[in-house]
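Re: your question about SprT domain-containing protein

S., sorry for the slow reply, the queue was backed up all week. Below is exactly what I fed in.
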Amino acid sequence: MVMTKETSVRRGSGLQEAPSAEFAVQTNSAGDPTTDAYRPWSAAFEFFNDRLFAGSLPPCVMTLTRHPRALGYFCAGAFQDRDGAVAHEISMNPSWFEAQGDDGSFSTLVHEMVHLWRHVHGKANRKGGKGSGGYHDVVWADRMELLGLMPSKSGSPGGSRTGYSMSHYIIEGGRFDLACHEWLLTAPGIDWRDARIERPSAPTERGAAEPPALSPKNTRTRFVCLTCEVKAWSRASAKLACVDCNIPLVVR
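Result:
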């Protein structure tokens, strides 16, 4: 699992053309909230895959989760069907959609799509692998910046580009900024979000809202080894590793 935290900035003028028809999100006349909640994310994945990754990313399972310390995460090989076909997972946290706004939330989606790209297409690092679970390496950071999302641990200019629990901010006029503006010209924004988040009585400037206060049910966080699935519980800031597999444990 990869957890992300980000801060969005305001979009530039961007492109003026509407998205292609094949990416348009159709409304659900039956009014099924499950379909309405998930369809925009599936459609947005297809759109950004086309615009930013030349359609090179494999389809994945989009889910919604209320993980207390994650805006979203990517989990490789999280699903398998009865015939043995494996699919990766990208999960989004509806508790943050209000604070981030549409562009910030879609930037989290692309953040996780870069993790998918790193897993499937990214080159090996100096040790011959593709980085430990939960770590944002230079290969990932360079691809993020190329796509117009600047990696930053602090979520603002000057922050470290690599590390655990990384953030980012949108580069004004960058590829994501322009693609997101194109998408939002005609595609609906994120309609379904967490109903338990207190919303301001007056609108605030995009990017200025404080994130929602998310209170975990307990003070312990579960860590898991992605190889042997050994589990441990500790404070969220702990740095744990599996001795047998020689890899860090990740929050799960």
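The chain has four helices and twelve strands. Helices lie at 33-53, 97-120, 138-146, 175-186.

Happy to talk it through on Thursday.
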